[in-house]
Structure formats: structure tokens, C-alpha cells
Amino acid sequence: MTQPNQAPLTSKPQQLPPDTAENTMQTIDGTTQTVTRGYLEIDASIDVEIADLVCEEKERIWLNAIADVAKAMSAHHVHSGALIANSVEASVLVGSNARVQALNATFRGQDKPTNVLSFPTPEGHATHPSENNSEPTHIGDCILALGVLETEAAERDIPVLHHVQHLVVHGILHLLGYAHETNSSDADKMEAIETDILRTLGIADPYDETIAM
């Protein structure tokens, strides 16, 4: 789960509609307060390199699952504010191990595939786009390695789709500026946010080794 610094993905994505967010939230004492909240829009696609490994039905299920992640992240609150404070968009590509390995070698100096790579745009980490920009701010791209995902899911005895959704959440958090590899505080925050979001998707805590997912 790593975070290079450039955005080289070029595959044409399938656009998934964003969820419309409310602007109020209920507090612990039952009152409501206004919060500034945008939405996350994810353009998701399956790489042509692995198209023959993913049937049409599986592709539909995966893309819908990624769309559900966008809705869940759009609705999530951190303390008294929104995780997504303004309208942002990101691209998610499910690719081959070989493609992810090549990117990992080029941008991180590690010649091996990994489960997810995140590539924030220069204006990424951008939950505060220009006030004059009515379009969502593109915060970057994530690429998932299909083979790694399937292997890890099998080793942990969890549904592949749950693992996909977890890694999409994790990758998008990197695009929003969280950096667990260099900031121990962010590591704890990311784990808590991921667990909360996955819970709304019906997925057990991936960090609790006592729970069979």
C-alpha cells in the first residue's frame, strides 16, 4: 500500500455517478449541525491487459463495488467534519501484476508487484479546490494488481471483493494526503477511517486478526 508521486495512468475509465451528500449531521446529543461536505467521484476501469481474465459479469460487480466505496467515503465524517470536504474525483484501475510491478520499479525502485499504488496529482491532497472551479478536483489515480489481490484474499480467507474495496479506500486516503509510511499518527487515523467506512459496506475490520471475514 504505497504512494508514488506521479500519475501515469492513461486507460479510459468508466464513470461512476457520485452520491449526493447532505449538509447536516447528527451529533451525539441528538442535535444537528451544518457541515461542509462534497462528494467523491471515482472513474473505475479494468485494464485491457487483463480483460480476458475478467468476465463481463465480474467486471460489472467490481465496478459497482468501487462505486459503493465512493458513496461510503462521501458520507463519512471525521470528528465534526467531512472526510470529503469538497467535490473531488479520482481514477481507479484494476490492472495486471506485470503493469503494477513496472510502475513500482519505476516510481519506487521496488521491482515487484504490490497490491495498490496511489499517484496523487500536484494539486491532489486537494479537499480545498479553487472556489472558481465548479468541476470536481482530480486528486489522482490508484492502480490495483489483480493477481496480488486474489492471492492475498485467498491467504486471508476473505472475499476478493471485500479486499478490493478495502484497498480502494486505502488508496484514496493516500490521494487525500494521508501517509502511513512516514507518519505514525496518519497510520492510526487511516486504520480507523478504513475500518469505519468498511463497516458501512458490511465488511469486518480487516485489521482485527481475531475476526474471520
Structure description:
The protein has 213 residues and is α/β, with parallel strands linked by helices. It is 36% helix and 19% strand. It has helices at 56-75, 97-108, 146-156, 160-175, 184-200, and strands spanning 14-15, 24-26, 32-34, 40-46, 77-78, 81-82, 88-95, 116-120, 137-145. Strands 1-4-7-9-8 form a 5-stranded mixed sheet, sandwiched between helices. Strands 2-3 form a two-stranded antiparallel ribbon. A two-stranded antiparallel ribbon has the order 5-6. 38% of the residues are buried. Mean pLDDT is 79; it is low at 5-31 and 125-132.
Uncertain stretches? 5-31, 125-132
* Oligomeric state: single chain
Net shape: globular
User: What class do helices, strands and sheet pairing give?
Assistant: alpha/beta
Query: Percent helix among the residues?
Result: 25-40%
Q: How are the strands ordered across the major sheet? A: 1-4-7-9-8
Rg, Å, rounded: 17 Å
Number of E-type strands: 9
Average pLDDT level? 79
> Beta-strand level of the residues, as a percent range?
15-25%
- Total helices: the number is 5
- Kindly, what is the distance between the CA atoms of the first and last residues, rounded to a whole number of angstroms? 20 Å
Largest sheet, described in full? 5 strands, mixed
Q: What are the secondary-structure elements, in order, as H or E?
A: EEEEHEEEHEEHHH
